[in-house]
Design a protein that fits this description.
Radius of gyration: 21 Å
Shape: elongated
Strand content: under 5%
Order of helices and strands: HHHHHHHHH
Number of domains: 2
Helix content: 40-55%
Mean pLDDT: 93
Structural class: mainly alpha
Number of helices: 9
Length: about 120
């Protein structure tokens, strides 16, 4: 999607090209056709480190009180990313303030943090 938005050409032509089709002329209504130049996206603010957001002691206590739902680092990462499972639903952990607190992060980064810090 980012490549489509920042494409330096007709975005509709780019989109149909992705699906193997071609247009003979620009669409005339996408942002590139209307402005004559590619869109630029603002540089995102760097996210604070995970340890600044998550209280490790609180997560460990929660894990210890719900081992069926949060024993493994992958379960913890899913919980922090806001992905439900039958175990987290049964334990009513989706109502916990930590649930989904890292939903805006890449899952692999959350998993790596859980493996190195909390596991």
């Amino acid at each position: 999607m980012l490549a489509l938005v920042t494409n330096d050409g007709c975005q509709v032509c780019c989109l149909v090209g992705y699906f193997g089709e071609t247009r003979t002329e620009p669409c005339g209504h996408c942002s590139h056709c209307l402005s004559g130049h590619a869109q630029t996206l603002p540089t995102p603010e760097p996210a604070p480190p995970i340890q600044a957001i998550i209280d490790t002691d609180e997560l460990e206590a929660l894990r210890d009180s719900h081992p069926d739902a949060l024993k493994a680092p992958r379960q913890q990462a899913r919980f922090l990313a806001g992905t439900t499972s039958p175990a987290t639903s049964r334990a009513k952990l989706t109502k916990n303030p930590l649930f989904g607190s890292l939903a805006d992060r890449r899952f692999d980064d959350v998993l790596a943090w859980c493996q190195s810090t909390v596991a």
